[in-house]
Amino acid sequence: MAEKTLIPILGDQLSVNISSLAGQNPDECLLLMMEVDEEATYVRHHKAKIAYIFSAMRHHAKALEERGWAVEYVSLSDPGNSGSFSGEIARALERHSIKNIRITEAGEWRVMAMIENWEDQFGLPVSICPDQRFIATHQDFTAWAEDKKQLRMEFFYREMRRKTGLLLDQDGTPEGGKWNYDSANRKPAKRDLSIPQPIRFRPDAITADVLALVAEKFADHPGSLDHFHFAVTHEEAMRQKRKFLDQALPRFGDYQDALLSGEPFLWHSVLSPYINSGLLDPLELCQDVERRYHDGDVPLNAAEGFIRQIIGWREYMRGIYWREGPDYVDRNFLAAERPLPEFFYSGDTDMHCMAEAIGQTLDLAYAHHIQRLMITGNFALIAGLQPQAVHRWYLEVYADAYEWVELPNTLGMSQFADGGTIASKPYASSGNYINKMSDYCQHCRYDVKQRSGENACPFNSLYWDFLVRNRDQLGNNHRLAMPYRTWEGMDSHTRDDIRTRAENFLDQLQKN
Ligand code: FAD
Ligand code: DLZ
Ligand code: SF4
Question: Which of 222, 311, 346, 404 has its CA 20 to 30 A from that of 124?
């Protein structure tokens, strides 16, 4: 039998045109897809996240076969499944005559280290192809970052606008005259607007099998399978994309930062799991959005706001992840050491905003950006939760979470644990911001107007306590000069009451 090229396709490489397949002759290749215990358990992923990835992998294997590729698919319950990528490569080499291995680079340091070992481990040539689903190459990001004192997203984003030509006029100036319409993305939502809901895809036989498998094997993982709604094929993801473009995108810009009780999705796209695992192409999506703007279907603040998230934030986070290195994960600039409270896994807390964000996360493996940043992330930051525990939680509970995108968002943007590589100041706020952007406080047992006493909104006292606790690290940050001045301007009674409230709340938290 002629020797073949072995091409492993990982669970976030579900794109039919993935770079490892480019230029290859299907007759000379064997594709390998592996459901392995190590990937499902290196953190305790939400049950719906595992189910989504396994079902999308199984459907993708069929799509590849229909295109003429030979695919060997190892399911989790296959007898002999070794439980790891390297173990499955070793088993495939025993079964088949293989001359070399070819793989698209992995999305995280942990798996890259594994792959880089394969040449020595197996004594075969291993070629690692760049992942071309991103707009910026590693070299692009390095070149951009090289001579910068600060790596702010806004300037990188402009480079990406220039590289893609998205929303640029003929002469290279930004559409509408401004690069960024962020200030037009901050309306609080109102109940009387009709909010489009994402399509709930009915599980087919493949998904039903996977749901049963996950329920049995990962019963101790967080989250529920009862609301499983994800698209699991490229075609289904395209349907959700069209629904978003038709119904939610027009208002995406206005309500990007809004929060509303009982409304997990608002005008967000809910496309991140599909983009990150490869079912949707990010650049194509941005070009669709740009077309809707040029056709007059959506306003500029919506089109620009959406495109910024993908070619700006998403690409920037990946650049930071690979630039900062494998020990970025260990940073803890504010020396925060408090363990994660139990209610992160139950949603059982009197703080209505937290109960909403966590409850829906456990149900759906989804929360939108402002819930992640300004509710759960903000709480973790001002309560001084240990950033590595916070990172593990985010990596576990969201269907779109892969370390390259989750870690810089959590550790850097949300927890300020990198000391300001990503954010120029911590995303810390009192209950006032939450009250302005949501209706949460109207349904809460705490009073958002009070700073001290048992009924006071915990975010209020924790916010001030956070600033005072971290004065050594943050006191020189000029963007925090105003709140520090406000604190100094309070009388000593008020300050004591606020700190006592924070102390009592944190003591109580420890006991729960
Ligand atoms: P939309 O609001 O519709 O936005 C459109 C797209 O823009 C998203 O699908 C996503 O691809 C991209 N995007 C938006 N913001 C960001 C961002 N900050 N970084 C990267 N891409 C962005 N996003 C992930 O994809 N995976 C994660 O694990 C993840 N973890 C996060 C953790 C924290 C603490 C925070 C604050 C944010 C995190 N994000 C993560 C970013 C963002 O919250 C999600 O991309 C978004 O909520 C996904 O929902 P959506 O598809 O409805 O997004
Ligand atoms: C997240 C995940 C899970 C839960 N399971 C698998 C799996 O069994 N097989 C697989 O190929 N990929 C899985 N993934 C996604 C991988 O963790 C992801 O591809 C790596 O992190 C590489 O970035
Ligand atoms: Fe959250 Fe405070 Fe508002 Fe309650 S009062 S919902 S805890 S911000």
Answer: 404
